[in-house]
Design a protein that fits this description.
The strands form two sheets. Strands 7-6-5-8-9-11-10 form a seven-stranded mixed β-sheet. It has a four-stranded antiparallel β-sheet with strand order 1-2-3-4. It folds into two domains: 226 residues, Growth Hormone, Chain: A, CATH 1.20.1250.20; 240 residues, Vaccinia Virus protein VP39 (Rossmann fold, 3-Layer(aba) Sandwich), CATH 3.40.50. The termini are far apart. The chain is of the alpha/beta class.
């Protein structure tokens, strides 16, 4: 190779730039598939691991298959870009629709599309390198291609959770990057116009792909509505994707209902049963709580119940997702449901991870709380499961005043009996007394709670006026467990094993 050939020309630079785009697009498809599977199937670590593993295997398969493409490399590259654009770009929309209309086929479609997209992406880089090899030395070629490949991956890994999903959503993000793949195909069409046979046919395919993706992008909201209306049955009044979850609020015969990642969090017609049972047994038993913390519960319903106690001077709400507290503060109808509690002058909202907040408080020597209400979603994945570990409860213990009470929502002791008693065993493992109780909430069935404290729980002398569910006469009944919900042997849930997540998934029969 002569020295002049070592310096890449305009065509080579254009191809290297396309490597950046190709890498970015490939990673987006990988992340959207993994994120959607964790949203819709639960257990984020399992879903991310299996989807990414399958995707990487398919990329290896594509790289191996590239050896069989020997002639007309630019034409093959152009066709592959168009195929990636269509399959990868449309993948989030098709998965949403499959989950709503044919849920039994979701898993097959998910992994089938991951294999197809991964294989096609695995073909891209070897083809680019073989095209560039005409003019660039192998040593420089490998370093340049890999540099642009890694830079594209870095850009997307930062933008995906911070910009793309919050502002565009999954469907539009997939379509946008599909369009970018198609744009690379158009660029290749122009660069290699003198080498391509059947140039008009290639041009028509590029135009058709761009039009298809553009139309789908314009109809993204409609696609989402069709899928979610079918899935949730009731009319959707609000939906949004945050870096943490998919938030959907519906309105139907049960009033408003809140879903996070497809899981019901409350129904307007009976949420008072859940929140009264969650809050009042510990608040009333304390007598005169002044400082209260709520971990989770960004909908403000628990805060609403806490503010019924005149002795309360300060409430700290620790909610990971600012979209939740913003929604239930600013949306007129939803704010009315929580009695505009999130606008109270007594309330301080902290949008951060509760585990980290407890760690920071512990290191800063922060004040303790008379009552701590722990209202997290069920432990469907390891990210939430860490909030049910002995490490978390040890930190919680440090924030409780000597006479304080904490209460933890603890799934169903009927359906998920071992999971329920695992939480009790975990609380006890850090030296706190665990006092379990349960309440019937029609939207959920029999639901469980556990009081964690250093002193025994006692029956309160009074409850706030105007409660719709709890009375002094019925409250003790919540602490009686029939034989089918009685205690069973259960392990301690630790950060190092997270047995609760596996147990929970098994007991609820989730795939």
């Amino acid at each position: 190779m002569n020295p002049a050939a070592r310096r890449p020309g305009p065509v080579d630079l254009a191809l290297l730039a396309s490597v950046f785009v190709v890498a970015a697009c490939g990673l987006v498809y990988e992340l959207t598939a993994a994120a959607l599977s964790s949203y819709l199937l639960g257990d984020s670590i399992l879903q991310f691991s299996t989807v990414i593993g399958t995707y990487l295997f398919a990329m290896g398969l594509g790289s191996w298959l590239s050896r069989f493409l020997e002639r007309q490399l630019p034409a093959h590259f152009l066709r592959i870009e168009l195929l990636v654009a269509c399959v990868g770009g449309l993948m989030p929309a098709l998965l949403y629709l499959a989950n709503a209309w044919v849920p039994g086929a979701f898993r097959l479609l998910l992994y089938g599309m991951v294999v197809v997209v991964g294989t096609l992406v695995g073909l891209e880089i070897p083809l680019v390198m073989r095209i560039l090899r005409r003019h660039v030395q192998l040593k420089e070629l490998v370093s340049q291609v890999l540099t642009f490949d890694y830079l594209g991956a870095l850009a997307v890994s930062v933008a995906f959770p911070l910009l793309l999903v919050p502002h565009l959503g999954m469907i539009r993000t997939g379509l946008l990057f599909g369009w970018m793949n198609a744009a690379v195909a158009v660029w290749a069409l122009w660069l290699f116009r003198h080498e391509l046979r059947r140039l008009p046919a290639h041009a028509l395919a590029c135009a058709a792909t761009l039009v298809l993706l553009g139309l789908a992008f314009a109809q993204a909201d409609r696609i989402t509505s069709v899928a979610e209306d079918r899935f949730y049955q009731d009319r959707i009044v609000f939906s949004a994707s945050s870096p943490y979850q998919r938030i959907v609020v519906t309105r139907g015969s049960a009033g408003h209902r809140l879903f996070l990642n497809g899981n019901l969090q409350f129904a307007e017609r009976d949420e008072y049963r859940y929140h009264e049972a969650l809050v009042h047994p510990v608040m009333a038993a304390h007598g005169a709580p002044r400082k209260v913390a709520v971990l989770g519960g960004g909908d403000g319903m628990a805060v609403r119940e806490i503010l019924k106690y005149p002795s309360v001077e300060q409430v700290t709400l620790v909610e990971l997702d600012p979209n939740m507290t913003e929604l239930f503060s600013s949306h007129a109808t939803l704010a009315a449901l929580n009695g505009h509690s999130l606008a109270s002058s007594k309330l301080r909202i902290v949008n951060t991870d509760a585990f980290q907040w407890l760690q920071q408080d512990a290191s800063d020597g922060a004040d303790t709380y008379d009552v701590i209400v722990v209202d997290f979603p069920d432990p469907t994945n390891f990210a939430i499961g860490k909030l049910y570990t002995n490490s978390f409860y040890a930190l919680l213990d440090k924030r409780l005043s000597a006479s304080g009470y904490a209460v933890v929502q603890t799934t169903s002791p009927l359906i998920a009996r071992k999971s329920f008693w695992t939480v009790a065993a975990t609380i006890e493992s850090v030296g706190l007394a665990a006092t379990p109780y349960h309440a019937h909430v029609p939207s959920f069935g029999e639901w469980g709670f556990i009081v964690a404290s250093r002193r025994p729980w006692r029956t309160p002398d009074a409850l706030p006026a105007g409660l719709r569910f709890l009375t002094l006469d019925t409250l003790p009944q919540l602490f009686a467990f029939p034989p089918d919900m009685a205690r069973v042997p259960a392990p301690v849930n630790r950060l190092s094993n997270q047995v609760l997540v596996t147990t929970y998934e098994h007991e609820w029969g989730k795939p």
